[in-house]
Amino acid sequence: MRFEERVWRLTSKVPRGKVTTYGEIARCMNTKAYRIVGQALKKNPDPIKIPCYRVIKSDGSIGGYSGKNLKNIRKKIQLLERDGITIKNGLIDLNKYLHRFNSKN
Question: Lesser CB count within 10 Å: N end or C end of the chain?
Fold first, then answer.
């Protein structure tokens, strides 16, 4: 399985109401290539099945979505809020919303 496909498979397992981070996906894949995780998500072939908007930065900030233009970032925020995730001062509380993958993922 290609790197991108592994990223997409993990991303598709993030449940509604939770987020994960680029670093958490990389950790689960036993790599430190979190930036390449972001690149793989840019190539997401199916945003319905692979909810890449649920992947954020490790500091709790939103990160990118379909590029870094403001319109797309607003869309990501709307999708997260629709999932029930609270964003305060541009940050998501990882203690409350972080989805961690187990070794079986």
Answer: N
Report yes or no on whether pTM surpasses 0.85: yes
Q: Provide the CATH number for the domain around residue 34.
A: 1.10.10.10
Residue 37, domain member (yes or no): yes
Q: What is the pLDDT along the chain (105 residues), one digit of tens a residue?
A: 799 999 999 999 999 999 999 999 999 999 999 999 999 999 999 988 999 999 999 999 998 776 666 778 889 999 999 999 999 999 999 999 999 998 666
Structural contact between residues 23 and 103, judged by C-beta atoms closer than 8 angstroms: no
- Spatial neighbors of 63 by CB under 8 A, at least 6 apart, are 22, 38, 55, 56, 57, 76
Among 26, 52, 62, 92, the one annotated catalytic: 52
